[in-house]
């Protein structure tokens, strides 16, 4: 699946039709270790509205990058958090973490999505625009993801971006 098929600049109905933001799809059936780890870390979220979870910046965070007409989002986690969530697991995911790239500050880069857009993330009241994640099982177009959320088959996670 291409990045364009997993990242959208859109209004998200539960948050209001006028608020446009960055939405990233997380396929819980993916074989990609970074995407699978993001799905695991989404379990750390604290539920706000029904089906909407908020993640602490130390559990999962995002970084925006803008290059010309392209906007990229990287999802990052602290090594201690990853180790804690994978403790006791003896599967391919635990072994695959060692192969994920590290940032200069030590954070693990789990996932990177990029699209062509003129959208510039808004600094917002706290200086950063969050990234919204939606979990789903298998590839799906945006309309199906919103329908799955409405039926309780998908959830949103709000991830804060680094300032």
List the uncertain runs.
Answer: none
Number of helices: 4
The tally of strands reads 9
Major sheet: arrangement of strands:
1-2-8-9-4-3
Rg, nearest Å = 15 Å
Strand content: 25-35%
Q: Topology as H/E string? A: EEHEEEEHHEEHE
Distance between the termini: 30 Å
Instruction: Please give the largest β-sheet.
Output: 6 strands, mixed
Instruction: Round the mean pLDDT to the nearest integer and report it.
Output: 86
Report the principal-axis shape. globular
**What structural category do the secondary elements indicate?**
alpha+beta
Give the % helix: 10-25%
SSE map:
Blueprint: E1 7-12, E2 16-27, H1 33-41, E3 46-47, E4 52-54, E5 61-67, E6 70-77, H2 79-86, H3 92-96, E7 108-116, E8 131-136, H4 142-150, E9 156-159
Short description:
This protein has 163 residues and is an alpha+beta fold. The chain is built from 4 helices and 9 strands.
């Amino acid at each position: 699946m291409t990045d364009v098929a997993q990242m959208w600049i859109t209004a998200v109905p539960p948050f209001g039709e006028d608020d446009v933001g960055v939405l990233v799809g997380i396929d819980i059936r993916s074989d990609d270790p970074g995407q699978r780890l993001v799905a695991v870390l989404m379990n750390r979220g604290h539920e706000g509205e029904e089906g909407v979870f908020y993640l602490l910046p130390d559990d999962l965070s995002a970084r925006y990058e803008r290059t010309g007409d392209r906007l990229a989002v990287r999802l990052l986690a602290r090594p201690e958090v990853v180790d804690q969530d994978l403790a006791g697991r003896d599967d391919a995911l635990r072994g695959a973490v060692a192969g994920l790239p590290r940032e200069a500050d030590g954070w693990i880069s789990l996932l990177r999505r990029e699209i062509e857009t003129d959208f510039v993330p808004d600094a917002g009241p706290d200086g950063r625009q969050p990234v919204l994640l939606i979990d789903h099982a298998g590839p799906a177009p945006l309309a199906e993801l919103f329908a799955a959320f409405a039926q309780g088959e998908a959830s949103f996670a709000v991830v804060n971006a680094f300032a």
